[in-house]
Amino acid sequence: MAAAVTGMQMICGAGLSSTSIRSNHFVPLKSVVHFKKDLKFRIRSMNEGGDGDVADEKEKAAIPVPPRLFSTPPPPPQPEESTKITTIMAFDGPAPERINGRLAMIGFVAAIAVELTRGQNIFSQIQNGGIMWFIGTTVLFSIASLVPLFKGVSADSRSGGVMTSDAELWNGRLAMVGLIALAYTEYIKGGTLV
């Protein structure tokens, strides 16, 4: 009998008295097999009439589609635009820079156009009746820019394509710098730029 036990130990690869018995001990089957608890098996059969394709389509339609793991979250809701005058006319509000930029764009183009047609620098344009045009244009464009903001319409919601609200802001900034540079250059030069 000892020979049979020794033979079995050799076949199994480890003796009962060896120190490696701990690594070769019996492990219950339920701890080795890891199945999902909600795993479902389907048994399908095809009939002889060739309707198997229809049955497959019905089964595919009945299988729920798992949710995507990396789905894009919905965009956050846009906050409503405030229609208070203190919010609109605040330093970082939507009106001041936009209105100043629009006025600077009009002023820069008008100053260059009058300089090219009449030969007057910006200071002589202001002295020769330009101040009334400046005040009228400022009032008109300020009111026209504020009306949509008081109705809750933002410039970002109305922009698209090439004409974006950012492009308008950058054009206004460049016009402000251009108008100041034009006035400074004509002051230093003592005459017209062109």
TrEMBL record:
Single GO cellular component term: chloroplast thylakoid membrane
Any single Pfam family the record assigns to this protein: Chloroa_b-bind
InterPro entries for this protein: Chloroa_b-bind (IPR022796)
Annotated signal sequence range: none
Location of the protein in the cell: Plastid, Chloroplast thylakoid membrane
Membrane spanning stretches: 99-117, 129-150
Main localization, broad class: plastid
Alphabetic keyword roster: Chloroplast, Membrane, Plastid, Thylakoid, Transmembrane, Transmembrane helix
Family membership: Belongs to the ELIP/psbS family.
Name of protein: Early light-induced protein 1, chloroplastic-like
Taxonomic lineage of the native organism: Eukaryota, Viridiplantae, Streptophyta, Embryophyta, Tracheophyta
